[in-house]
Design a protein that fits this description.
globular; 368 residues; eight-stranded mixed beta sheet
Length: 368
């Protein structure tokens, strides 16, 4: 990855990484202050994407990360997030309010003790250990306690004296109704007495996913996480639209939710929360049938001509030299995980309202 110099002190940077399974977003809020949203690790990589990138920019960038946020607990969104938090000594950890209940903590304890897996619950177990160690060391106690995101909660604000522009990160979800729904589902994962504890896998829908509204100077962005559009009042995107009047201005940049899936698409978001023809960034999902499908790309391109994708959805499956083995594999579901850590990077002046953004693409990322 050739990344060059760090962003300028007065630049918003949005870096979206997507290897074909998982995603990570880094936001530079000015003055070498960063926020990391979700986490992924490229196949064959030793470090999580954000840690690798910020290390290349310079060690000071690691210390500049102030917030690490998990939008939800699915493993494709938080792989390596514990290692990232450990690498960022000044970062506070944030997650959905649906995960602060006793049921989820019980689930984390059971999963950590009984199974050696690689799920999102395992990552949360590691995070709990990191936070406990920070508390024990009695260093910066603010960073030893998590922040819980719920609708319309300010998660981070930078407006110190001497700073030329403010920066804020606000959670737009989950709603109270979504948290209640999530709690009932989490409780179902806890085994009954004498029942075997199994590895916790990703389960849809993503009603408790954390959507973020970011303001850095004169720039705005909406990060859709994996929030879906159920069509029911007080849930998903409709719950956010109910409070749309609280947003002072529409977003110029949009991280498309749930890999472009039609289940996450809500026309009201494009009409009321985004500027016309915003810059939209998409991360694909290569497992199963894969996302986005061509019709999803066509739908998104009908909304904006500025659509960028971190990597190709289609990943060619390897051919086996042994024809017998190849014939047997054809009868089974096969998944290829792309190791190419695609990267879309946007840099934009946070103080010059008439400036244009610089958009770069690395490692197979492309404009759709």
């Amino acid at each position: 990855m050739t990344v060059g110099n760090p962003p300028k002190y007065d630049e918003l940077e949005i870096s979206v990484f997507g290897p074909g399974r998982g995603e990570c977003i880094l936001v530079h809020m000015g003055y070498n202050e960063w926020c990391m949203i979700d986490s992924c690790v490229g196949t064959g990589k030793a470090l999580p994407a954000a840690v690798e990138y910020l290390t290349e920019l310079g060690g000071a960038s690691l210390e500049g990360v102030l917030l690490v946020l998990a939008t939800h607990w699915h493993d494709d969104h938080i792989r390596g997030i514990a290692e990232s938090l450990h690498s960022f000594p000044n970062a506070r950890f944030a997650c959905s309010s649906a995960l602060k209940n006793q049921e989820f903590l019980t689930l984390v304890q059971l999963q950590t003790k009984s199974l050696q897996g690689d799920s999102g619950v395992d990552e949360f177990g590691k995070i709990v250990k990191i936070l406990k160690e920070r508390k024990r060391l009695n260093v910066n106690q603010n960073n030893a306690a998590p922040v819980f995101a719920i609708q319309d909660r300010l998660l981070l604000q930078r407006n110190e004296i001497g700073r030329l522009f403010p920066a804020t990160i606000t959670a737009l979800s989950p709603s109270d109704v979504a948290v209640t729904l999530a709690l009932s589902k989490i409780a179902c994962f806890i085994p009954k007495p004498n029942q075997l504890q199994r590895r916790i896998t990703n389960r849809p829908p993503n009603e408790a996913s954390v959507v973020l509204f970011v303001e850095v100077g004169c720039r705005t962005a909406l990060f859709g996480a994996d929030l879906e559009h159920s069509g029911r009042a007080e849930e998903g995107w409709l719950a956010i639209l109910d409070l749309a009047q609280t947003r002072p201005q529409p977003a110029q940049v949009y991280k498309v939710p749930h890999h472009g899936s039609p289940s996450a698409d809500c026309i009201g978001v494009w009409q009321r929360l985004l500027e016309p023809e915003p810059i939209a960034i998409l991360t694909p999902f290569t497992s199963g049938k894969g996302l986005p499908q061509q019709q999803d790309i066509d739908r998104l391109k009908s909304r904006t001509p500025h659509l960028y994708c971190t990597s190709e959805r289609q990943v060619r499956l390897p051919k086996r030299h042994d024809k017998v083995v190849e014939k047997k594999l054809k009868d089974r579901t096969r998944i290829a995980i792309d190791g190419n850590l695609g990267h879309v990077r946007l840099r934009w002046s946070a103080t010059d309202a008439i400036s244009t953004p610089q958009i770069e693409m690395f490692n197979g990322a492309f404009k759709a």
